[in-house]
Amino acid sequence: MFTGIVEELGTVTVVEDQGDAVRLTIACDVAISDAALGDSIAVNGCCLTVADLTATTWTADVMAESLAKTSLGGIAVGDQVNLERAVTAETRLGGHIVQGHVDGVGEIVSRSPSEHWEVVEIALPAEMGRYLVDKGSITVDGTSLTVVEAGDASFTVSLIPETLARTTLGFRAVGDRVNLEVDVIAKHVEKLVRAYTSRSTTSKEN
């Protein structure tokens, strides 16, 4: 589990095509400062497992499913990526509960800078719109953000200078694809309500 508070930007140093998978090597400092083989690290919001480790880099295998359903399918050497280590019992939950399981890929539609922040509009897959509410949480490329305005086909977020400076969202351009993960609590609530509604309907019919 993660919190959506990006710890640092890493740099992709190797992208090794393995046919039905890709092996990524990423250079960083903080994310591997106490890492061990088998640990989980979120890369642009996608939970990956440490498969190899050096003093300055770590390596992970990205399976075909992740390549097809996340923006990692288009990753290249030199790309910067958001990194966050998995939480511990002592971690502050500064963002919200993030699983590292990408629900879909969105696209940046517009960026509107102002003096102290920047409003970004992101288009999202149609099936994800129902999970978003104004002032609710969403994870964009592993970054926990508050939804300013939720629509069926897109949503907006406001990026403060800290977020712009410390994450990839500071240099993402219009047309860029970003990984999205909706609030897992919203998904659980939907499932519970659907099950309750189904039982109620069945009971009335009987």
TrEMBL record:
Keyword presence, rRNA processing: no
Domain Lumazine-binding: 1-96, 97-193
Intervals holding Lumazine-binding repeats: 1-96, 97-193
Reactions mediated catalytically: 2 6,7-dimethyl-8-(1-D-ribityl)lumazine + H(+) = 5-amino-6-(D-ribitylamino)uracil + riboflavin
EC number: 2.5.1.9
Gene Ontology biological process terms, A to Z: riboflavin biosynthetic process
GO molecular function, one term: riboflavin synthase activity
Pfam families documented for this protein: Lum_binding (PF00677)
Keywords: Repeat, Riboflavin biosynthesis, Transferase
Pathway: Cofactor biosynthesis; riboflavin biosynthesis; riboflavin from 2-hydroxy-3-oxobutyl phosphate and 5-amino-6-(D-ribitylamino)uracil: step 2/2
NCBIfam families given in the database record: PRK09289.1, PRK13020.1, ribE
Role: Catalyzes the dismutation of two molecules of 6,7-dimethyl-8-ribityllumazine, resulting in the formation of riboflavin and 5-amino-6-(D-ribitylamino)uracil.
Oligomer status and interactors: Homotrimer.
Protein name: Riboflavin synthase
UniProt organism field: Nocardioides caeni
